[in-house]
Amino acid sequence: MPRRLPPLAALRAFEAAGRHLSFSKAGDELLISQSAVSHHIRTLEASLGVTLFRREVRAVSLTPDGARYLASVRPAFDLLVEGTDAVTRTAKATVRVNLLASFATHWLVPRLGRFRARHPGIELMLDPAIGLVDLETSDADLAIRYGQGNWPGIEARRLMDERIAPVASPALIVRGPAIAAPADLLGHEILFSYSRTLFEWDSWSRAAGLDLSTARRSLLHDYNIVLQAALDGQGVAIGRHRLVRDRLASGQLVQPLTLTVHAGIAWWLILPRRKPTRAAAAFVDWLAEEAAMDEFDSSVEAVL
């Protein structure tokens, strides 16, 4: 007897709409119109003989039948994705990593020679991005992000802690005004990288007892741009120690104040719900080893 299955396109539309609880967001994900999603849902409801969604003026919600059906359909799609990954990605041995460009430039890339030596058959594809990525719908195998790890709906695994402190170019220090106390920072341009909360400067200034509300600010898009502006003497930036240690050691940047803050800030590894490919698992294991070996200088003062 042939298996009784609804149309696959209708099932995809139902799974996406049930996950987002939105026909329009499902359409965006599937690259079809909202009306096409609605048509697929009606087709599926007619095929099953049940109502899957309650249609309200500006929202949709699952009926009890819809919730039960989604609980079966989602794992089935996860298995399809996992099986497809096992065939295609294992054959190509490719790992796509979604990450901040600054982390790739200043921390990851200098270490990649060791990964290639251990896993010559695995190709890495680095995909720089700033915003959070939905790994359930993205082509990325994993993501690396920076912050305090409190992103709603995201399962983040701490990769390694970070410490922060203001840094500037020697030329700016010589030019002045002098920076001998936190309040002296108000005499300089404060350089920010993109963030919804500007949490780095907020965390450091709170530990220092400094009110930055009157500071001159330059909000720059990417941390690489912030570092370049600091190197050019355009202002004072927050130094992420894992990314700027070489610049500090070479004298290209200096840390004018001793206060170094942790405040729960870290680098985070984000993995999807699906089982990782062998290549992705190998990269994750290597990344954890490298992070464990990357120890801070114990002489650095920290406020935790």
From TrEMBL:
Record keywords, A-Z: DNA-binding, Transcription, Transcription regulation
GO biological process: DNA-templated transcription
Domain HTH lysR-type: 6-63
Record-linked Gene3D superfamilies: Periplasmic binding protein-like II (3.40.190.10), Winged helix-like DNA-binding domain superfamily/Winged helix DNA-binding domain (1.10.10.10)
Top-rank taxon, per record: Bacteria
SUPFAM superfamilies per UniProt: Periplasmic binding protein-like II, Winged helix' DNA-binding domain
Entries under InterPro entries matching the protein: LysR-type_TF_proteobact-type, LysR_HTH_N, LysR_subst-bd, WH-like_DNA-bd_sf, WH_DNA-bd_sf
Any one GO MF annotation of this record: sequence-specific DNA binding
Matches recorded under PROSITE patterns: HTH_LYSR
Family indicated by similarity: Belongs to the LysR transcriptional regulatory family.
Protein name: LysR family transcriptional regulator
Organism: Aliidongia dinghuensis
